[in-house]
Amino acid sequence: MKRSTDPDVLLLQAVADPTRLSILRQLSTEGAVCACNFTDCCGVGQPTVSHHLRVLRTAGWVSTERRGTWIYYSVRPEAVGRFRELAGDLEPRSARTCRGARGGFIASRPSSSRRRISVQPGG
Length: 123
Fold this sequence. Notes:
Layout: H1 7-15, H2 18-30, E1 33-34, H3 39-42, H4 46-59, E2 62-67, E3 70-75, H5 77-88, E4 96-99, E5 105-108
Antiparallel strand pairs: 1-3, 2-3, 4-5
């Protein structure tokens, strides 16, 4: 299967993993967290945590800040905003009924008029 380059797909794929979701939850409650402090929340080793942090960073979910020899991670507000917009696009709307190609009736939703905003992966 071909890998997507759509930033929205990357954003959603990154948060779909339970370990990465745990990392994001910890970041959202604690703010900036040192990379060495994620092993307790996730129940995995440091190499696995590093992999998941890289995926989150590549997808644009987190930013990094070097403090001496340590790297601290924070949730990017732009990513949270885009996630909310994507979730908002999934709100139920009134369905319109129209005739399908085979004569049956199908429901369709009006297309969204919301502007698409791309979250650029950050560092």
